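ok trying this again, last paste got cut off
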Amino acid sequence: MRERGIQTSIFYPSIHLFSAYRERFPGVSLPVTELASRTELTLPFYPHMSFDDQDRVVTALAEAVAR
């Protein structure tokens, strides 16, 4: 996606891994939450996005998943 100039980001980091939570609740393991935060991402979609830009994002995502 980066190679195509499409920005992605982690949308929901695992909050229990933040230092404030790790200090207060050490040793907490939430495997499903951790998996979700490692495998979900935010894609650029917004109300006034052109159809061409939407197609570019969807095509790049499909190609990335196919790899």
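PB: full thing came through this time. The radius of gyration is 16 Å.
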